Amino acid sequence: MKDLNIAGINVNLDDEGYLTDSSQWNEEVAKELAKIDDLELTDKHLEVLKFLRDTYNAGDALTIRRVGKSGVVTIKEFYKLFPKGPLKLSSKHAGLPKPTSCV
Q1: Within a domain: residue 50?
Q2: What is the pTM of this model?
Q3: H or E stretch at 12
Q4: N or C: which terminus of the chain carries fewer CB neighbours within 10 A?
Q5: Looking at the 3D structure of the chain, how many domains does it have?
Q6: Is residue 102, in this structure, part of any structural domain at all?
Q7: 9-47, pLDDT tens digit by residue?
Q8: How open is the CA angle 92-98-103, to the nearest 5 degrees?
Q9: Residue 20, Cβ neighbours under 10 Å: how many?
Q10: Which residues are known catalytic residues?
């Protein structure tokens, strides 16, 4: 585990860089986490992250297919926004646990 001060908030990350407490998440934390992965978040990225958080908090499973059917982005756009593994990276930047479907 690793403790970091991101955007003025002390956050705890697991060994893979995921927040251990999703309540520590906000947009500034997301932007800083994305910078660690060499990604600059746009408004569209943030829209996807908010969709993921809402979906997760509603108790629904996170899948690439669900994101593609959300109306927020198509699957192709999702891959373009998060090219190094869309669901894995977007979940990380959304402050959510690593999806079980991701290696």
Answers
A1: yes
A2: 0.91
A3: strand 9-13
A4: C
A5: 1
A6: no
A7: 889 999 999 999 999 999 999 999 999 999 999 999 999
A8: 115
A9: 14
A10: 102
